[in-house]
Amino acid sequence: MRQAHHPEVGEFTLTGVMSALSDPIRVGVVRVLADGRERGWGDLQAPVAKSTLSHHLRVLRDAGLTRTRQEGTRCFVTLRRQELRVRFPGLLEAVLAAAEDEDVGHQVSVKDTAPPA
């Protein structure tokens, strides 16, 4: 995999971020990542094909919402919360609160990776 491009904070645009957040699956991914933990792509569960989920993750990355890191054959994603706060103060919190209130993106979750007891 070639190195993914991550826009600098000054390259974030309001229309780019809002466009990326216009899809419920992408909002769901942001909601999952809002806990601050890095997640493996394979740990994310959504009611779409893997290729479609990959597309959604790329849209989020290209808009500046997420950062992707490759480790061997695995890819990990994190929310760029601090960078978004710098560029658009309060926007992410408002989006997350509205998504919670309207239950947008509820269909995206994380696989339970805990070992069986």
From TrEMBL:
One GO MF term attached to the UniProt entry: DNA-binding transcription factor activity
UniProt keyword annotation of Transmembrane present: no
Keywords of this entry: DNA-binding, Transcription, Transcription regulation
Pfam families, sorted: HTH_20
SUPFAM superfamilies: Winged helix' DNA-binding domain
SMART domains reported in the protein's UniProt record: HTH_ARSR (SM00418)
Residue ranges occupied by any HTH arsR-type domain in the UniProt entry: 6-103
Keyword Acyltransferase: no
Protein name: DNA-binding transcriptional ArsR family regulator
Organism: Nonomuraea rubra
